Fold:
Amino acid sequence: MQKLNTTLVYILSAVGFICCCFGIGWIPSLIGLFVARSEIKKASINPEEYTNLKAMNSAKIVAIIALIVSLLFTAFIIYLYYMISNSPEFACEFWSKFVEGMEGNPSVTEDQLSQYIEMRDNACSGL
Structure:
């Protein structure tokens, strides 16, 4: 009896969750899903040779969830970029709220804050 390698799928899914903040988490999540599907297909051909098919199905579900979360966050990033680029009112409001949130943060330096203030001023100057 052999065991299916669920560790790789779980690691790729975890990396997908972590990288979803950057909009690229769908890549490792998708790879994990393909690995899980190929392992399940391999085990379904000879089910008597493998012991942890249920564990691989669980890993596949985790990969699917990571993929969905990553795709949703990537869509949100694309939407945000589109709105900032094409809607001056949205861009002004976005950068104003961003600067407002950064001003109360003691770990943000004046140099860091000044570049966001400049972005806010550029976005709001066209209104």
User: Anything to note?
Assistant: Residues 23 and 77 are 7 Å apart (CA to CA).
